[in-house]
Amino acid sequence: MDAIYVRQSVDKVDSISIESQIADCEKLVAQGTKYQVYQDKGYSGKNTDRPAFRQMMEDIEAGLIERVVVWKLDRLSRSLLDFSDFVNRLKNHNVKFISVKESSLQISGNPADELMLNILSAFAQFERETIQMRVVENYYARGKQGFYLGGRAPYGFQKVRTQLHGKKTFMLLPIAEEVEVMQKIYDLYGNGGCSLGQVQKWLHENGLKTKKGNYFQKHAIARILGNPVYVKADADVYTFLQSKGVHINNPVEDYIGVNGVYLYGKTKGVAKDKYNTDNDEYATLGMHEGVVPADLWLRVQDRLAHNHNFGAKGTGTKSWLTGLVRCGYCGTSIFFKDGGREGSKVYTICMGRIEKYCYARKKALTADVLEDIVEGHLLNHLKTLKVKTAKRKSTYAPQIQKLKIEATAKDNEITTYLKRVPEASSTVMAYINQEVERLNKEKLEILERVNELIVKESTPEFGGYSIDDVVTEWSSFDMEQRKSVAKVFIQQVTVTDDDIKVVFY
Question: Higher model confidence: residue 122 or residue 69?
Fold first, then answer.
């Protein structure tokens, strides 16, 4: 059987359609030969992580395919490494290959043909990376000039078309009723001393929802509170952003307490780590006016910096699903609560009900019933995976980074002391030696902790079990082992009265 593989990233006027690719490939299939079409629509060629491509490779390994037909080499992949792997796998299974646009090239055992295939693939990768680099450069160049860089308008604003430096862009205009709500959020949190949960409760009690019509979640509220797009940016805001390692495009004299600020680049999100400290974020004054006084905005940032409670952490002891389950009606985390007596049943309850605004779910659901259903989905999912070793998500990276920064700070202190050596008296030298010895000891202790975390980082999340072991030994796992497996594979479980959905990574 022949395999026709086609791919299209996006529908564009100047791009060849999936249908046209199939029609051209069918011309190379001999009359009477069976063939199957494998198509990936809406997938990039930067790698081979595509459902139809994976299925085709599985069929090749199963011996079902004798030849692969593509419209052009870059339909397979624009990565030279991925393409070389593809060629090797075809050779190992004696599968032939032909391209409509490069029909003179084939997998034949001739080194010259294979060299040419790799050269063409290398050029495809070079083209992709060049285009990507230009897009990134243009993105940062437009940001530096104050252009709106895309995406939805933040809560409180709408986008309107305008021009800047003779080029089309958008600017933000306030939506009066949303600005009023947003200013109330800042007032409650910054002036009223309310917690994120209390602000959330006020919003729900007043029937207020996001632009998408959803209930406000704590992380969404935190993003509003941390976004400099709302602030009337003055010199104090400039200093604050600068202290966080943000690259600021406008001079401080432009920060006159009027305009809001666009923050762009490799942002981590306010609800996670607030601002980066790795020099990947940039700030540019927007064309719109801010709506929150600078002193209030800065006061809010100080509170946010000490508030890390944005949802369930998955540390509960009632169920191995703690931290993974959400209400399908209000979107808040679902908690597991028992009757307080030994042996009493554990029930599921969403934060929306605890906060007295979500009563949509009518049916009681116990933890054991939910666990049985999710367990079935999880084990079936694991059986479909071809990967035999499970990798853990990075959990120690932030701690390692923090410790490395501390070690660098110790080094800087040592250097400061050593600079004083040439002019130091014998008394001062004794003091310097004592301090340098102390700092060096502290630095070594920090580095030792870094090494310990690196070792933990490389240890499998659930004791080195392979996926096959997890499937066969699941029934003997304790809660912590099950929790570890669930965190690796399950992204979210959503519960309603009619359905329980499990989304995997």
Answer: 69
The answer to whether 304 and 298 have CB atoms below 8 angstroms apart is no
**Residue 333 DSSP symbol:** B
Q: How do residues 65-97 score in pLDDT, each as one tens digit?
A: 999 999 887 788 766 567 767 877 888 888 888
Q: Specify which residues 504 forms β-bridges with.
A: 490
Residue whose token pair is 């992949």: 77
Task: Identify whether the C-beta of residue 85 lies closer than 8 Å to the C-beta of residue 117.
Answer: no
The label of the residue with tokens 């965190």 reads 487
Would you put residue 49 in left (φ > 0), alpha (ψ -120 to 50) or beta? beta
Q: Which of 78, 288, 85, 282 is nearest to 174 (CA)?
A: 288
Letter string b/e over residues 454-483, b meaning 16 or more CB atoms within 10 A of that residue's CB: eeeeeeebbeebebeebbeebeebeeebbb
Residues with Cβ within 8 Å of 359's Cβ and at least 6 positions away in sequence, in order, are 353
Q: DSSP for 49-99?
A: --HHHHHHHHHHHTT--SEEEES-GGGT-S-HHHHHHHHHHHHHTT-EEEE
Measured in degrees and rounded to the nearest 5, phi and psi for residue 248 equal: -110, 120
Residue 38: phi and psi, rounded to 5, are -115, 115
CA dihedral 464, 467, 472, 477 (to 10 degrees): 50
Mean pLDDT for the chain overall? 80
Please, which residues have CB within 8 angstroms of residue 152's CB and are 6 or more apart in sequence?
A: 211
Helix (H) or strand (E) holding 160: strand 157-164
- Rounded to the nearest angstrom, the gap between the alpha carbon of residue 144 and the centroid of all alpha carbons in its chain is 25
DSSP secondary structure of 242-264: HHTT-EE-S-GGG-SS-EEEEEE
91: exposed, middle or buried (Cβ count in 10 Å: 0-12, 13-18, 19+): middle
Does pLDDT of 271 surpass 50?
Answer: no
Q: Is 340 exposed, middle or buried (0-12, 13-18, 19+ CB in 10 A)?
A: exposed
| Alpha-carbon torsion angle 479, 484, 485, 490, nearest 10 | 110
- 3-state secondary structure (DSSP) of residue 207: coil
The pLDDT, as a whole number, for residue 277 is 40
Burial category of 393 from C-beta neighbours within 10 Å (exposed 0-12, middle 13-18, buried 19 and up): exposed
- Distance from C-alpha of 290 to C-alpha of 295, rounded to nearest angstrom: 13
- Among 410-419, 427-436, 478-487, top mean pLDDT goes to 478-487
- Single-letter code of the amino acid located at 330: C
Q: Is the Cβ–Cβ distance between 73 and 21 less than 8 Å?
A: no
